[in-house]
Amino acid sequence: MWGSCSDLLNGPLAPRDVDLISTRASMDVSIIFVNWNSVDYLRECIPSIRKYTQGLSYEIIVVDNASPAGDADVIGREFSDIVLIKS
To answer: Taking CA 22 as the corner, what is the angle to CA 11 and CA 47, rounded to the nearest 5 degrees?
Structure first.
């Protein structure tokens, strides 16, 4: 997506980036999880968020910190509508 904050503020933006910025600006809330070997907790949390955030625009972002058990791949398969960042 973006290289850094300075790229976002100072560099040329592709049309896709502009669309993402405007979409995110209209979000009510961004929910961010930092994950390391805790896919079982995410399996409980994400459905709960979906259940109790009706009427809100939100995004779920999961940053996986190189879980050795392959959590990022599992999360990506099970929750294809979230933003997944493999760190």
So the answer is: 120
Contact 2, 17 (CB under 8 A): yes
CA distances to 14, 16, 19, 42 from 50, in Å: 31, 26, 24, 12
Beta carbons of 56 and 30 less than 8 angstroms apart: no
Position 52 in a domain:
yes
61 — alpha (psi -120 to 50), left (phi > 0) or beta? beta
Query: Domain tally for the chain?
Result: 1
40 is in which domain, residue-wise? Answer: 34-87
Contact between residue 84 and residue 73 where contact means Cβ atoms under 8 Å apart = no
Q: What is the pLDDT of residues 14-51, one digit of tens each?
A: 555 545 555 566 788 999 999 999 999 999 999 999 99
* Structural domain includes residue 53: yes
